Amino acid sequence: MTRSSRSLGRDPLQHGGSASRPSGAGRRSGDGRRAGDGRRAGAPVGRRGSTAKTEFALPVGTTPALPAVQAFSELEMPAALLTALSSHGVTTPFPIQSCTLPNSLAGRDVLGRGRTGSGKTIAFGLAVLARTAGRRAEPRRPLALILVPTRELAQQVTEALTPYARAVRLRMATVVGGMSIGRQAQALRGGAEIVVATPGRLKDLIERGDCDLGHVTVTVLDEADQMADMGFLPQVTELLEQVAPGGQTMLFSATLDRNVDRLVRRFLTDPAVHSVDPAAATVGTMEHHLLHVQSDDKSATVAHIASRDGAVIMFTDTRHGADRLVRDLLANGVKAAALHGGKSQPQRTRTLEQFRNGQVTALIATNVAARGIHIDGLDLVVNVDPPTDHKDYLHRGGRTARAGEAGTVVTLVLPTQRRDMTRMMATAGITPRTTHVSSGDAELTAITGARIPTGIPVTIPNPVIERPRYTGPTSGGGKRRGRTAHDKTRTTQNKTRTAQTNTSSRRARAAA
Question: Positions of the region Disordered (predicted)?
Fold first, then answer.
């Protein structure tokens, strides 16, 4: 089997899936790391249950979809793109790619649903690159637009597509909040054929006059349901209304609820519809566990799980909760770090890199990491705080069991949370395995690989040393740095010397 594209820009592509479904009821999907450390072989595990109930019926196109392909070489793409794919060992498309690319390359609107980690990035990315290749963008006027909900997902998409964009000499610009808007404006002024953006920052740049979408002929909405959930729907609608009329629109997502239905009905024309994943949140390689714990033992249970031999992502409800848990785990000897919206983008990027290279083994995150984050080989996700929405559960869990690998999703449930979690599992279409555990239990170790913490405090290097803030221009046009106490003392001394010199000069003139 050929090497998968997830080695490029961390885009996880391969997984099992059903054939294309051009019509029928919408279904729900969920989602990377080898089989778990210490997981009991042959243990009964939670599997997919009934179909989730909140998705809209997928539209039935009037034009039949083109048949799927078995190899990238069957597609009409620039030779340079095919060569780049082959040089990276990517020759066999994954299901969502084989189903959607024949239609997207032909210029049709596409509605694609595949779980996180199924290869959606390359599915729409190759179509964007192929249909834009050979054209040159004017300053501030991109030719293709990829809209995503989060900074992390924008960076992942850019990383995954950059090798192929270079092969066909296309320039890409990433436009997200939390980064220098001046640099992003400069990249647009220099000319970029493809822009990967979050809605808010792109809107800011348009209002500044740094970007004009009037020449965009290919538009992609990735993870459209999250953009709707995050309140971006008005901004997305406003942006889509600015692209060139008659262009191509592709919408890809892991879940398709009725918020997305509004975008589909308004902006997609006779789309080719492809759904290559089951509706429920799980796949055959994903296990779901509800671990019933007592409130006075929950912290110890979390510390035991985080001390496992292997990486883990743990989700909390709030930034404060994530920071507090990191402090507790560091004090217990666990190499932990937080990832949430209160961190600057450079800090978030560096923390993810520390997690990937093993400097951090327990990543404590809020829902900011629930989409767009791919960590090779991650086999355990823990909901320290149960999610409040079944879609959040799906996408938190989507950090594991990616690309056909095995993974476990564990949710810690207090007695007061049991009824709500039972209801949420039913809505998500999952029948989990429920176990009563406490810290130190053999059952806890069997499920999660939990170990007794060392209790020896550890520290993690600061992910980013922030530079001094720019406080405005000086009279000479330079930058003013922050004044220290030493600087102020020297200034006072200089003023005193100047005053003494002026007094001496006046006396000398008077004597003359």
Answer: 1-55, 458-512
- 184: its two tokens: 């992003």
- pLDDT tens digits, one per residue of 485-497: 444 444 455 555 5
pLDDT band at 429 (very low <50, low <70, confident <90, very high): confident
Last residue of a domain, one of 275, 298, 328: 275
- Is residue 228 classed as helix, strand or coil in its secondary structure? helix
The answer to whether position 413 is within a domain reads: yes
Within this chain, do residues 78 and 180 fall inside the same structural domain, yes or no? yes
Question: Do 311 and 386 reside in the same domain of the chain?
Answer: yes
Q: What is the span of the domain harbouring residue 160?
A: 5-30+56-275
366 domain residue, yes or no: yes
Alpha helices in 170-257 (DSSP H): 181-190, 199-207, 224-229, 233-240
pTM of the complete model beyond 0.90? no
Domain boundary among 235, 250, 275: 275
Q: Same domain for 290 and 433?
A: yes
Taking only the tens place, the pLDDT of each residue in 169-224 is 999 999 999 889 999 999 999 999 999 999 999 999 999 999 999 999 999 999 88
Judge if 329 and 392 occupy the same domain: yes
SS3 readout for 351-395: HHHHHHHCCCCEEEECHHHCCCCCCCCCCEEEECCCCCCHHHHHH
Cβ atoms of 96 and 120 closer than 8 Å? yes
Task: At 121, give phi and psi (nearest 5°).
Answer: -60, -50
Give the residue with greater pLDDT, 485 vs 238.
238
On whether both 167 and 308 belong to a single domain, the answer is no
- Residue 144 sits in a domain of what CATH number? 3.40.50.300
- Dihedral of the CA atoms 157, 159, 161, 164 (nearest 10)? 180
Residue 86 domain-assigned (yes or no): yes
Render 276-288 in DSSP notation, one character per residue: -S-SSS--TTEEE
Structural domain count of the chain: 2
pLDDT for position 89: 86
Whether 139 maps to a domain, the answer reads yes
> Which secondary-structure segment (H or E) carries 252?
strand 248-253
The DSSP-derived string for 30-74 is ----SSPTTPPTT---BEE-SPPS-BPPBP--SSPPPPP-SSGGG
Q: How far apart are CA 269 and CA 252, in angstroms?
A: 15
The C-alpha atoms of residue 295 and residue 237 are separated, in whole angstroms, by 44
More confident residue, 230 or 133: 133
Burial of 124 per CB tally in 10 Å (0-12, 13-18, 19+)? buried
74 and 131 fall within a common domain: yes
* 72 lies in the same domain as 213: yes
Residue 402 to residue 404: CA distance in whole angstroms: 5
41-61 pLDDT tens trace: 333 344 444 334 455 666 776
- 314, β-bridge pairs: 364, 382
Sign of torsion over alpha carbons 304, 305, 308, 313: negative
364: β partners: 314, 338
